[in-house]
Amino acid sequence: MEYYKQLRQFVGHRPIILPGAVVILVNEKGQVLLQQRPNETWGLPGGLMDLGESLEDTARREFLEETGLTVGALVLVGVFSGPQYHYTLSNGDEFYAVTTAYLASEATGELVMETAETRDLQYVDLHDLPETMGQVYRDSIQAYLQRISKC
Question: Which residues contact 70 (CB under 8 A, 6 or more apart)?
Fold first, then answer.
């Protein structure tokens, strides 16, 4: 059972802090790989940290689980936390997300389009992001764009 589910058995719906990681993978056309989740929202592939994992381990594991791809070197883009990342789920669970975003320079393998957590995967222009995309993903991509504009 995932750590956060175990924790919920003790704290109920009260707010908790959930660390996680996402990966920004940009193709040769400058497009970013986005994941459509079963609830039809779009975001960056990634997820929550398990006990004993590093954030880089989390990023690699979640990216593989959700895309079928293995990422190469990871470069830290930013860490996103604070009151703007407070969420209340439909079941009443509350949490504050602490999301670490990484840039992947390369990935190997074959895209797996449909998994339990993935409805679709598409490369999308960085300046034409879907409306149904969460703020932390937009903030991660914005931090990446700021980083490359300084180069």
Answer: 60, 63, 64, 107, 108, 109
As a whole number of Å, the CA-based R_g of the chain is 15
On whether the CB atoms of residues 74 and 52 are closer than 8 A, the answer is no
Distance between CA atoms of residues 95 and 13, nearest Å: 9
Q: CA distances (Å), 105 to each of 68, 74, 89, 111, 122, in order?
A: 16, 7, 33, 16, 17
**C-alpha angle with apex 29: 78 to 118, nearest 5 degrees?**
65
DSSP 28: T
Chain segment 29-57, per-residue pLDDT in tens: 999 999 999 889 999 999 999 999 999 99
Task: Please tell me the least confidently modeled range out of 15-24, 54-63, 97-106, 113-122.
Answer: 113-122
pLDDT interval class at 63 (50, 70, 90): very high
Q: Are 137 and 22 in contact (CB under 8 A)?
A: yes
Residues in the chain: 151
Token representation of residue 74: 């990871």
